[in-house]
Automatic annotation (TrEMBL):
Residues 218-228 have a biased composition (Acidic residues). Keywords: Membrane, Transmembrane, Transmembrane helix. Residues 215-251, 784-808 are annotated as: Disordered. This is Integral membrane protein. The lineage of its organism: Bacteria, Bacillati, Actinomycetota, Actinomycetes, Kitasatosporales. It comes from the Bacteria. Residues 799-808 have a biased composition (Polar residues). The keyword Membrane applies. It comes from Streptomyces badius. InterPro entries: AB_hydrolase_fold. SUPFAM superfamilies: alpha/beta-Hydrolases.
Length: 808
């Protein structure tokens, strides 16, 4: 990391015109400009219907009349809720949750000083796990369309007769499509269309969300017309493998190319699209090639061998593309590997077409029976994912030991734990769909149990994976009960301290218990890492047991335990049936909850912080993850601050609540030094250290945040003990950075008072502006930025203005 910028006090304060601006950035759930500015009359200053900056109508040209704003700054509101919310159809993005979660794992690596090779290895491993999830999703679609529908149900008269829409595929009707290869060729269009849809969505959302360019050299010159900009330095080159010779680099979030990863996303999109098409082709070719190698096949096996060899070669190229290159952040990389992104998916699609033609060749002697051999593919996928996660854990632990930071989540194992959860989510979602489709096709029977079923059903491994879900839930009861008991005890211990805090008001046990309960519950956020660690470790061990059980027995758990002790057999059958229905029910509940979150503002606020954390980060590991709103919002904010300070030479406070504080900090990092010296940062209810600093230490750890404080002119952070999201920044240095202000008193009054005759609410994460400390600290920031204009004596004072609200 580059040497810290000298404190602002070491340089003379910048000249200014007296104009002052407060740029408000809302948090999770969004807010309207009217709510943020506290006025029904607003005007859009710049931006579009997706994200824009607004002012009160009367403040539209406030910087031209600074004498009107001696006591309060001009207020602007940046509304970015259009980037993360909308109609209920966006709930379908929840189906891409495993992709989003594995993308998070990329950014969770521990701080690494001089460990270029280890950092690259970590990135490669995450990208390979992400690739395996694309293959898993496509394989699940092939399992449903090719195996369950086209191979098993259409090849069984008892099943196809119940489904009239399968009549033209039925092997017993003798039509042109009745041959197994032709049925597979037709069914292959479903997973191929799914891959094409993912490619289209990734390409379209890039244009809509992430194509905004950050400040380039021309923009920086406009923000620094006097040529006073201090160069950050070019950063480490992409091929700098020698940590001793690498030059100091600036904080990652300040690099010019951090919020513009077009080249990498395009490369990953090409590789993942190719992998999806190749997976479909492998399912089709595997069945046809196995038949051609049998005695009596009418098609020479050499044709299949040639196509399979081409598929293998294309797959090696796709994996090489994934491993070859990661993100380039030291410069804004506007290049695109045109040949690669054109020919790699095109070649894979061509091979899929050849596989379809080969499978569709007439083979009158071919009869489908049993199931396609997808069992081996799913087992290898599960084993590969587990092995990659274990290697990730070893690399992450090595990085953490080199540069330990005490508050880093799980001692550096946060990234591998989250990657394991992404694999588990992918397995549960894909397995749930396959099992529910099999149950629907089979009617009253239960596929895989041999009891009244007419089709073979999905791979045995999926049943074993479903069976471990009840076991995992039972194991989770232990830490959940522990946390409940610990929270109750902590709340009881808080009682005397709370009453002393509000003394000399008379104690009220009910009021005390409520305040204590909310504070103790808010502290549970700090226990989340251990819950994630327990779930990930249990998932890894139970997943390994599921693979071993399916491989050893070749049967579902209920049949594998036949002949065992009665309790064991009963438990296995109960786990199998319960897990199967839990998967299906959970999948439906998941999608329904996502739709409700987009329609209901309160539900959106509840789960929005997790979703907004996931989509804050650029797509560095998985190109099909939901789009990154910060690649639009951060350049928006940086450009607005840079333009305003360059035009007016005035003071600026960027005021961010909750997730808006993270956007504000990221935007300040992107400013040229001259513009940053005119900026004060005010954060409140901020997860910048409590969540981002612990889970993403390489980007928001103690060292980057201390550097941010030293590079910005001034910073204040407000937090409450009742806030489950926001917290202290916890900067430690000599002299004391003096950033944190809190915990603020919440509620403001314990009981009824003369000034507050009605009971005061416990605000928690919202309405920080209601606290008198907020106005006091904002005024102090303005004073630190420079003295305001002298008050006129001609009686031309205007009424004091409220700077509005930014809670979201």
């Amino acid at each position: 990391m580059a040497p810290a910028t000298p404190p602002p006090s070491a340089t003379p304060p910048p000249e200014h015109t007296g104009s002052a601006l407060e740029l408000l950035v809302h948090g999770v759930g969004g807010a309207t400009p009217q709510e943020m500015l506290g006025d029904p009359r607003t005007v859009r200053v710049t931006g579009d219907t997706t994200a824009a900056v607004y002012r009160r109508t009367e403040d539209a040209h406030g910087e031209k009349h600074p004498e009107r704003y001696r006591d309060e700054p001009v207020a602007e509101a940046y509304c970015w809720s259009g980037l993360t919310s909308g109609n209920s159809s966006r709930a379908l993005w929840l189906l891409l949750l495993p992709f989003m979660v594995v993308n998070l794992a990329h950014w969770m690596r521990p701080t690494a000083a001089g460990r270029t090779r280890a950092v690259r290895l970590y990135g490669v491993l995450v990208r390979l796990v992400a690739l395996s999830l694309t293959v898993l999703l496509t394989a699940a679609a092939c399992e449903v369309a090719l195996d369950l529908v086209a191979w098993q149900c259409a090849g069984t008269s008892a099943c196809s007769e119940r489904r009239s829409w399968l009549g033209f595929l039925s092997a017993h009707q003798g039509g042109w499509w009745s041959q197994p290869g032709r049925r597979l060729a037709l069914a292959a269009t479903v997973p191929a269309a799914l891959v094409g849809l993912l490619w289209y969505l990734s390409n379209r959302t890039w244009s809509a969300y992430e194509s905004q360019s950050p400040l380039d050299a021309t923009d920086a010159d406009a923000c620094d017309p006097d040529g006073m900009e201090e160069a950050h330095g070019p950063g480490a080159p992409d091929n700098a493998d020698d940590p001793e010779s690498a030059r100091p680099v600036p904080p990652a979030l300040s690099r010019p190319g951090f919020w513009y990863g077009r080249r990498l996303v395009a490369r990953l999109r090409a590789a993942h699209t190719a992998a999806g098409f190749l997976t479909v082709a492998a399912f089709v070719m595997g069945a046809a090639a196995r038949h051609d190698r049998t005695v009596g096949s009418s098609v020479p096996p050499v044709f299949g061998l040639v196509i399979e060899g081409a598929l293998l070669l294309c797959a090696v190229v796709a994996v090489w593309v994934i491993c070859r290159r990661g993100r380039s952040e030291s410069v804004r990389d506007t290049r695109v590997d045109g040949a690669l992104i054109t020919y790699l998916p095109g070649s894979a699609l061509t091979l899929l077409g050849l596989a379809v033609l080969h499978a569709g060749w007439s083979r009158p002697e071919w009869v489908s029976s049993g199931s396609l051999s997808g069992e081996t593919a799913f087992r290898l996928l599960a084993l590969g994912q587990g092995l990659l996660v274990v290697i990730m854990a070893l690399v992450a632990r090595s990085l953490y030991r080199r540069t330990p930071e005490p508050r880093t989540t799980l001692y550096g194992l946060g990234g591998p734990s989250v990657a394991m959860l992404a694999c588990a989510l992918g397995g549960v979602m894909t397995g749930g769909v396959a099992q529910r489709v099999a149950d629907w096709l089979d009617g009253p029977g239960t596929p895989g149990t041999g009891r009244g079923s007419i089709i073979e059903g999905p791979p045995v491994l999926l049943s074993w994976q479903a069976s471990v879900i009840p076991v995992l839930l039972l194991l989770l009861l232990v830490p959940v009960v522990f946390l409940v008991v610990r929270t109750a005890r902590r709340a009881r211990r808080m009682g005397p301290d709370i009453e002393a805090e509000y003394a000399p008001e008379p104690p009220d046990r009910a009021r005390t218990r409520r305040i204590a309960r909310i504070r103790a519950t808010a502290a549970l956020t700090d226990s989340a890492p251990w819950i994630v660690g327990v779930v990930s470790a249990a998932t890894l061990l139970l997943g390994a047991a599921a693979v071993a059980g399916s491989w050893a027995s070749g049967e579902v758990p209920g049949l594998a335990t036949d002949g065992a002790a009665a309790p064991v057999e009963s438990l296995a059958e109960a786990a199998q049936s319960t897990g199967s229905w839990l998967i299906g029910f959970g999948f439906i509940l998941f999608v329904a909850g996502g739709r409700r979150a987009y329609r209901d503002a309160s539900a959106r606020r509840t789960i929005g912080i997790l979703w907004d954390v996931g989509t804050f980060w650029p797509r560095a590991a998985h190109p099909f993850a939901p789009p990154c709103y910060a690649e639009r919002a951060v350049p928006d904010l940086a450009s607005r601050m840079c333009a305003w300070t360059a035009t007016t030479k005035g003071r600026l406070i960027i005021s961010g609540h909750s997730q808006g504080s993270v956007l504000a900090a990221a935007a300040v990092w992107q400013l040229p030094d001259t513009a940053r010296r005119r900026v004060g940062l005010l954060t409140y209810g901020s997860p910048i250290e409590r969540l981002y600093g612990r889970w993403f230490p390489a980007y928001f750890g103690a060292v980057p945040l201390l550097g941010l404080n030293r590079s910005v002119h001034c910073w204040r952070n407000l937090f409450r003990a009742t806030d489950p999201i926001g917290g202290a920044v916890r900067l430690t240095a000599d002299p004391d950075p003096d950033v944190d202000r809190g915990p603020l008193k919440d509620p403001l009054a314990y009981g009824r008072t003369t000034a507050l005759p009605l009971p005061e609410p416990i605000l928690g994460h919202s309405d920080y502006q209601a606290d008198p400390v907020f106005a006091k600290e904002r005024a102090a920031l303005l004073e630190e930025l420079g003295p305001r204009l002298p008050r006129q004596t001609d009686g031309g004072d205007t009424l004091q203005k409220s700077s509005g609200r930014s809670s979201g």
